[in-house]
C-alpha cells in the first residue's frame, strides 16, 4: 500500500493538518498583500511570497507521495497518477476576479471540474453555480446551496430535467429557440429566462456558437413568442467560446446584448440581468480580457442602469489549481540496434493518457507540457532541471499514454538533459480544467485518481474554518 501522506486525499473529509496551517502561517506572517494584481501573477519564478509557498507545499506533497512508492514492489495501482490541488489558488483567482470584474458575480461552470472540495471552496467564497444537467444541479443542491445561486445554463434541455428543476425551485435557465420556449411554457412557465445570443467565437479554443445562441435577426421573433406564451424573460446571456483569446469578442457581445435589452423593452420586458458567460483563461490574458469587458459593461450597462451582471467562468477557476503526476511505466529506445552516435531517443509510456486526464488534448485542444518530478533518486519539482531543455542535443522523448490505441499520444517531442527510466515520475501543471471530468476507463484504466489538497493562502484556510 501507498503510505498515507500528511495531507488530505480525495476520500478524506475536508481537513488540513496542523503541518500545512503552520507552514502557511509562518511563511505569510506580516504579508498584508495576499494578492498582487499584476501580469506577473502566474510567473514561475517564485518571486511572489504566496506563490513561492504554493510551490513549496505542492512540492512537499509530491515528494511524500512519490517517495512512498517503490514500483519494484508496490501493489497494483499504487503508482497510479494523482493530483495535487492548491485550494489557495482558487482563493487567489477569486480575489483576482473581484479586482478586475468587481461588478460581475461569477457562477462557476460545474462541467469544468466537479471536485467537491473545489466546489466547496467556491461556495464558501460566495460564487453561484452554472449547471448543465440534473446531476450537476443535484450535486450543488446537496451542498446546501440555495436554488437562487444556480443557473441551468443549457439552452436545449431534457424534459424530465425541466420538471426536476421546477420541483426544486431552480428557476433561472436559458433558451435560444422557439421549441425550447414552448417546452418551458408547458413544463415550467414560472421559470426566469435568459435569451442566449450568438457571439463571434472564432478566436476561442472550443467554439460554442456552432451549437447554441440565437442570431440577432431571430431575437425579435423569440421575444414576441415569449410574450405570447406569457413567459418571464429576465435577461440576456452569451458565451464567447471556451478559451477565448480576442477581447474584442466581449465588446461586440456586450453591444449586441445591449441592443437585445432595448428590443426586449419594446415587447414589454424589463430585463434585469446580463450573463457574460465563460471563456476566461487563467493566464496573463485574463487582465486584458477583463479590462475590455469591464469597460464595455461600464459603457453599456453602467452601475446606475440597475442591471445585475453575472458570468459563468469554468477554466479560469479550475485550471491552475491542479498539477498532475504520472509514472513512467515503460520505455522504448528508438533505433536501439543502430549506433547511438547521433543521440538516443526514447518513447516513454506513462500511466495516464488521452482516454484519461489528458482527454483535454482531444476535447479541449490543450498541449500539456511534461516536466520531470523524479528521476532515479533526484526529486526535481520546480527546478531548472525539471523543465524541457532548449538544447537540440538533449535527449529526445515522445510521451505516450497507457492504452493500446496509437491515438493515445501526449507529446510528440520533448527534450530533457536527464535520462528517464521506467519508474521515474513526470508532472504536468494547469491540469484542472476539462481533464478528470471527461476521463474514461478505456482499456480498464481507472479514472478515479487521488487528489492531495494543500492550501497556500491563510485567507482561504480562515474561510474554511481551519485557522
Ligand atoms: C454554457 C457554458 N457556460 C460556461 C462554460 C465554461 O466556459 P469556460 O470554462 O471557458 O469559462 C461553458 C463551457 O463549455 C458553457 O458551455
From TrEMBL:
Pathway: Amine and polyamine biosynthesis; putrescine biosynthesis via L-ornithine pathway; putrescine from L-ornithine: step 1/1. The active site is at 404 (proton donor). InterPro entries: Ala_racemase/Decarboxylase_C, De-COase2_CS, De-COase2_N, De-COase2_pyr-phos_BS, Orn/DAP/Arg_de-COase, Orn_de-COase, PLP-binding_barrel. GO terms for cellular component: cytoplasm. It is found in: Cytoplasm. Its cofactor is pyridoxal 5'-phosphate. Homodimer. Only the dimer is catalytically active, as the active sites are constructed of residues from both monomers. Catalyzes the first and rate-limiting step of polyamine biosynthesis that converts ornithine into putrescine, which is the precursor for the polyamines, spermidine and spermine. Polyamines are essential for cell proliferation and are implicated in cellular processes, ranging from DNA replication to apoptosis. This is Ornithine decarboxylase. It comes from Schizothecium vesticola.
